[in-house]
Amino acid sequence: MTLSIIAAINRNRGLGFGNQLLYWLPNDLKRFKALTTGHTIIMGRKTFESLPKGALPNRRNIVLTSQKKTFEGTECFSSLQEALDACRKEEEVFIIGGASIYSEAMAFADRLYLTEVDDDQKPADVFFPEIKETDWKEKSRECHPKDEKHLYSYSFVDYERCRRQ
What we know:
Elements: E1 2-10, E2 14-17, E3 20-21, H1 26-36, E4 40-44, H2 45-50, E5 60-64, E6 74-77, H3 80-85, E7 92-97, H4 99-105, E8 111-117, E9 126-127, E10 136-144, E11 154-161
Parallel strand pairs: 1-7, 1-8, 4-5, 4-7, 5-6
Antiparallel strand pairs: 2-3, 2-9, 8-11, 10-11
């Protein structure tokens, strides 16, 4: 299995505020959809509850929750390891949030698909884990200026894990 993490972060590694994304970037949403469609996505309960229309279509939606709840269109597990064990070995699985799930998954992840937003002013109350240069190698960077649909300049940056010793 290939474990990938996908997120949009600012220069301070800010992810969100008040259980909402910090930025509305249409091209980031298009990239998210293109990368995750047809794959399994794993998220925490709060991330799931923040989705405006519930389970994301054309993806296997897995929600991590300690509550004995079910959510329409999802499978629920109580731990990341339990969720990963339920995935096929040949598939790419995406971690889509929140912050605690990102932190736990960083040790196992093979790839990072990040949208790095050129801003450090918006307040954030949740943050992406540190990206250590000893663990990750930048594979590609695609820079975009701000425009009429994007209030901030941003870059799509893909990382791969450095070889494990």
